[in-house]
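The records we work with from here on pair a chain with its fold. Taken together, the tokens spell out the fold as the letters spell out the chain. The record below shows the convention in full.
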Amino acid sequence: MEEKLKIEILFPEFCNLYGDISNMKYLKKCLPKATFIETAFDEEPCFVKEEVNFIYLGPMTESRQEKVIQKLQPYKERIKELIEKNVIFLITGNALEIFGDAIETEDGNKIEALGIFHLHAKRDMLHRHNSIFIGTWEEIKVVGFKSQFTFSYGENSNNYFAKVEKGVGINKETNLEGIQENNFIGTYLIGPILILNPYLTKKLIEKMGIKEPKLAFEEDTIAAYKQRLKEFQSL
């Protein structure tokens, strides 16, 4: 089954702002027989004409966001179709905002986004928010980090990714983080969240049809996760 899996990494040449490509490097070690496709920005995404099991898009500079929106706009209906088909999407950092309605800049201008989810983001480039995060996703504790100039606003009570235990949600006024629609997960969490969260990684691999997956460096990653969770809870 593993050798039939197809995982697409979108625009890794610049959607890797916080080293988030480490998520895919780790997944490759967990699924060495799967096919990984790295789609450059000047290429047509594989998902447009082929069936894929997993799509990854990481964070980028604010100036790149508009270009990525323009790149993906022709494929909006295909993306919605894949979400409905339960294809796994892992969208991290400010890449989440690309799938919302709009991104508002400091001067009040709005960049129209894909409009797949009804969230709108507001930028404040003079104030960066940094924090740690603990939340619950499908009864699993998720840990991570946030570093962002934007927050998102809108109703996500019926399709949030994780309920916050420590930290903030999509903005400072909510304890609901990110978006989950079927197997689409969009979260402001950054960095190697698949390495930091082995139980989440196991669950995602199971959703691709692999029963009882064995992670790369499983014992070490679980031990590190438990220690990090304990430390975060004590802060």
In short: The longest strand covers residues 129-137.
